[in-house]
Records
---
Amino acid sequence: MTPEALARQLWSGPLPDPSAPGRALLGRADYPAVLAQARVLTRMGLTVDLPALQAAFPWSVDLAWLSVPAARDAAPLQRAVTTEGRRFGALGWALWSLGQPAEALAVMEGLNPDAPSHAEDILARAELRILAGEDPGPLPASHAHRLGLLQIYRQKGAAALSEQLRRDKATLPPQPALWTWLCDVFLTELDIPAAQDALTSFADHCPDHPALPLLRIRLSLAREDHGDARAQLTALDDADTPWTWPLRRHLLHLRCLGAEIATSPDADYAPLRAHAEAASRLFPRDRALGAALLSARELTEDWDALAATLPDHPDPRAAAVTFLRLGLPDAALERLNHAPPLPPDEAYRLRQRRAEALKMAGRPLDAAEALGPTPFAAPLAADHAYWRAEIALASRDLPAANAALSLALTAFPNRMGLHLSAARMAFLQGDDSRCADHLARFRSLKSTQTGQPVEDDLRDLITRDAATAPDGPGQAARRFALAPPAFTPDPSAQIPRQIAHYWEGPRPPGLDRSLCAWADLYPQRLFDAASARTWLEAHTTLAPLFDRLTSAATRADLFRLALLAQDGGLFADLDEYPRALVEDWLIGARSVLVIEEGHGTLANNFLATEPRNPLFIHLRDSVADRLSTLLDRGETPYPWWDAGPAMLTRAAARVPLTQGRRFLSQPEYLQRVATNLPLGHKRSPDHWR
């Protein structure tokens, strides 16, 4: 069976006998054909008796190499390389991939200049030394430009790489590996001007290279221009034969398809999952494709059923990421503890993921310890700085956050996430001018990325408010963030043990799971637009105002305040998932409020109160007045600012603090409840965030 025929069969479904194509190789004497077919079969994850093939061709380094990824064993390759006295670079890379960097570097010492693979070996030695942070020595002349730029990026960061490229561009050779790497770096960094410049230079040097069309599509996706990306994908001449596509083509198609489905009124992600499953049969060992399949399953499958399969998932890292997205950080930590040894960069990213899981579990001090020391490579050091700052901000350790961000912003001035973290840090420090500068830089970078102006959002609103309104939500949020009011229990307090939720539209996977979890804790009521309006008409005068609101988020905000002011109890958004009991939060409390990690505003995704609580009566009435005024002026309310956390924060600061008002920090909240889980509706362009 030809590779294309085999791929076509796999595209349609699993093979009846996955070992049959491998058995057909045994006994064949045509080495080039055997090697080519063995490469195809191992890439497809099909059974191949590699020891038997290696016995038939004991001098083949390439056949020995094929056993490394699946068996995670470099011994056959080491025997072949040592016996043949060549291809030490292949052995070095294999050991590196298995998380044995010291051994990888050791086999690259004392290379034989007379070996037929010497040029390849010294290239591998130089690149491995650069990746390890060591002096590579003299760079091989044929690849000196690429290795020199790689060394600059690893040591000094993206800004230094851009500057060096600007100086050297006219003298760089027409090497596809060089230009592909540069495009990949700048696209990963979302440095759109640099990526466009590198792609243009690549096309000038190698106008017919097959990587160019896919890089152009990737650039369109980086710009969030999904229509252009789809048009370019459609224009490729193999659109009707997906089993012949290269791996990157599948990944780009899945990104486009996911964005297209998200914009449809009744999003159906079944085609996304079907394509991801078929492509994964062709490339079962690719991590990016495996992650795409897990993402598609998340959008189409019951979340409890999905979680039950993750302990046996072949990629512990991908399984841990999905556990985190499902709101299960403890399960993610358990899975991360069973990851195999990894190359240095990936081993650091594993540490980073472990720190993320601990932070998500409400354990910021443990997260900081898990993150460990700063890695030497500048791109990883910038990632480290981001997470170090996020963890420090969660603990309100502003000096630590500032120390982490300062150097990273110098080396990577175009990383948008760093500017957002720096803006939050400056806000909490009371430096509203510097906060505004970082937000302006973020908007500029985002506008450059998408080619569209960026509207102000909640970060801009609260920063300006803090700078101009002494009694507004901005200043109140800063006070709550840095000095949360102490809790004094009220023995007579009695929050009703009942919970309510609000939902409009189809239920995505994950929503029923949250419903069931909350129902296990307290008697439950679920409202939609119709039942909420009926309740409002029966108990308040707010039904006409509810009818005028065009945003589901604003309707939900108004309704929850009216319901809580009247009936009391608990209210939780359905992207909140309780992992533990919350009963002790209610004991002695007249109300329970959560201080958000970001800017210190009070969250409205979880609220608890006694009936007729003065705070919630004031909040209900002030939100209703604000919404009515805005609508009368023909303005569209912004949910977060006009009906949600900003209004709640201002009200809590204005209504005198009374006995029994409990404030939870976000780490305290996260110890019990996973928050803001990625339900499918959040991919829709009209989701308010």
---
Amino acid sequence: MSCFDPLKFRQQFPLLQKNVNEKPLIYFDNGATTQKPQCVLDAYQDYYSASNANVHRASHVLSARATRAFEEAREAAKTFINAASTREIIWTKGTTEGINLIAASWGESQLKAGDEIVLSYSEHHANIVPWQLVAEKTGAVIKILPLTDNGTLDESKLAELISLRTRVVACAHISNVIGRINPLEKIITRAKAVGAITVIDGAQAIAHLTVDVQALDCDFYLFSAHKMFGPTGVGVLYGRLALLEQMPPYQGGGEMIQTVSFAGTSFNELPFKFEAGTPNIAGVVAFAEAVRFLRRHQGQAFFDYEQALIAYMMQKLQNIHGIRFIVTETPDIPVFSFTLSGHHNHDIATALDSRGIAIRSGHHCAMPLMEYLKLSGCLRLSLAPYNTFAEIDAVIEVLTAIVHGEEPGGEHQAAPGGALTEEKAKEEAELQADESQVMLAKFAAIKGWDSRHREIMLLGKTLERMDKAERNEQTLIAGCESLAWLTYRLDGEARYHFKADSDAKVIRGLLVIVLAAFNHKTAAEIDAFDIQGYFEQLGLLQHLSPSRGNGVQAIVKKITQLASRD
């Protein structure tokens, strides 16, 4: 289809019409998961409303209807990636389970001590850990392909690292952090020359490229439905038929058997040999609708629009002072990873979130890549064809304001009625005996997450910084994605006086809030304090990302452990 209308495309996604934190949602976290169009949501609901039954196992009408839809989805997946047979399409929970299946089934049955597994520095943890586990069991050795300055796998090292000892080469089609297309043709050709199999993680490529597994000539290709506008909990493992037939089952149970007796069991034919138990039928049916949805829209204009987004975003980001892209050159898909000099990644992400802008910060399940690049983490903006140039402008405006030391959305505004009258001053003076009550009163007068976020950042500026010597392994708070430290002293009345610090401004603000609950209290008072009720009254945790929420809980745990120990 040559015609692509970005506005009409966007209008099919209900969540993109919503507000988040009282602001229109700008969703730039598509590398983690894409939003779902109404047709996919309807297909999921319709299955349960009209066809709910188990597949392959009953003779009634509903089971036949469900089985037909389930197997039609397999045919749709086969056609979508141009596999040779539906027997080569295995349903999984996602890319991660697919890689685990290959590593456990093929790897444990085929690898032996001294065999080599070749990975790369830019792999997602899902394409590293399963191979580490199988290497430990079999005695195989892992070798790592380095990267070029532009982030792609270094072709000049293929002959050196993919040798006659290599049995498997596993790499991403496109890194989830770098966004560059790897030279698969040369990698696969080299692997075949030495008799190694190839496992391609296509999770990031599947929504942005036309994938033809027969043209690629890879042995395995894996992807997840939720990264291509489909439901979560569904993935596809494509495997070359001859290899799948040789591999032992990954799990045992219903569906993957032909006969079972205590004398022995015979296994089902492909693809059912690898699909033990009741599958995610509704998800598979909805995934088929996602495939049909993509096929309706994908065409040259679809890809051209995405490339226009890439060029526009790159141009705008390059003008931001202090930006450092993690690799050189423009990405091949709209995935932009960078840091901003003088600003913690989590502070930037939290500030954007307060404006209804969803991005990702951290290591992106690619810790070896971060170590290779000598980074603790980075910011990632990942777009889809439902994103707009106006959304890019809005994000750039906020990032520019942050870099220039301005609060996004203007100066901090006092809440209505926030003037310190004589009566309010008296009330505040009476509350000084309990800092937590002062904090609750402060936040009760602030409406909206944007304003509360600005208040947290302002509180962070009031936190006295710890000496560098105090920020060490002994005072480090485990469980915080950002670095955070805590020390304390006990006074003559056995009251605790805590000092804390963090490398992230937002965490410093949250530390002020936590310390207001626990400072100047005895161990018994700390133990008795209803910290979760305190957080609920403040209205904070529901607005924090899971990682930052877990970080707050880690701070609380550290304090309560210290108090219970003394």
---
Amino acid sequence: MNSKRRETYLVLIYCFVMALLPASHGQSTEDSQARALLVELVLGDDDSRASTLEELANHGDPIIATFVAGWRGGQVLRDGDDTVLLKIGEQYTDLLTGVATQANPENLKVNRPSRKLRKTLKRMVDLIDLSSPDLGKRIQSAQKLGLSQNPEYLPDLKARAALQTDAKVKRAFNEAVWISELSNGTEAEKLEAIKALGSLKSFPARDFIERCVSAETEPTAELKQASQQALQKIDSHRALIDVIGTLFRGLSLGSVLLLVAYGLAITFGQMGVINMAHGEFIAVGGYTAYMVQNWFGSTYGEGSPLYGYYFLVAIPLAFLAAAVVGAALERGLIRFLYTRPLESLLATWGISMILQQSFRLYFGAANVSVSSPPWLAGSLSVGDFSMSNSRVALIVCVLFVVIGTRLLLTKTHWGLHVRATMQNRQMASCLGVPSGRVNMITFAFGSGLAGLAGAFLSQIGNVGPSMGQTYIVDSFMVVVVGGVGNLLGAAISSMGIGMVDQGLQPILGPVMGKITVLLMIILFLQVKPGGLFPARSRSLDD
């Protein structure tokens, strides 16, 4: 490689690394302007402070709230005539520059605002987030002030609403203005606010609309009609959101069941092994995620940017850890029980209890918590519907697992050997298929999928020794309803069971909803004992 090309690569690498580094912690222009105005506020007189407060009201810098709290608490001091210091703890900071500095306490003079100025500052702090550069804070502040229906905030909300350019922020500001006008507006403004909130299908406004109409001594017919139409629109929209939410929760539960049951569909459906320890492989994956999180926390610190990527490392490690345990179990026990299903059930049940007790001895009997990385925390909002990021990630992962497993079983030599071995183990061995190794890899793969499920379940709930027992019965139902050994049937049945379960629980309650689902499965199996896709075989024993 010549020197010119080497220099080009070095420049590209440098640019890439610099792009990944966090932004500089130096003062922004907004911060510098806010600090200068705060210094003017401290050093100025009553006449100049009025204009300074007006300018500060248009800044949303967090330093303003910190300064106001310090000023009211006697933490703002003057060092001479022109220097203003802010004391935070035992540290002095130059208010103008934001740089820590040394000061002689004997030369400092505490500066306190007047009572009238303190009242003005409190109101300014209440409104400060309306100008925050963080759009989320701006929306939360507008919603909070609007729901308070305080008439003092209404002029500011109206003025700031006209300045918003982001559609989502503007919607929040307008909604806040209209809710406030329900209590503080004229009759015409209340009527227009009700119509606007109805068109907006505002959930928070529903109770305020009812309260607005009931507060009127003799509400007009137009006001009654507008409120009825608005409430109808809001209720219809809420019903639609509830349906979408039920479908999403059903899809989420179905994804959990599918991820848990896919490994069982391979070990039970295609290998004929009733593995009662399948739930413990889920716990292996969950505890692997917990250990990876702890290692990242102790190595890099929980505040480090690298700590947020621990889950990307935990996902493959959870798969590998469960796969290794599964391979060891297959080599040490399962391979002797392929033709003895009852013995395999009892043996794996014993292994299940041994693994659970091992988890209790090593990690403790109490559940442990696995925190979500920043990119998985929070939720994704689409209109008024909100979806948990962790559940969205689970659904995406399940989609990849289904596609990947399908390709492995149909497009690879290993998949061909698996299908041949599962159809007739003796014949496959006679034709040169290494059935022993295929059995081990297949069992390890099914166990690894359970570990993968455990890693994702750690983001939804706590990790404990018996976490897998919650899903083991449901996963067996998924396999049986879908058709023993049929992966497509497992996918369809898991989604169907998840949808029906989540659809019935709001109506019948969690317990009766679960019981109803079990009864429906029993009735279905009475009609189709082989499941959705019954297994077909050319064996003469059938």
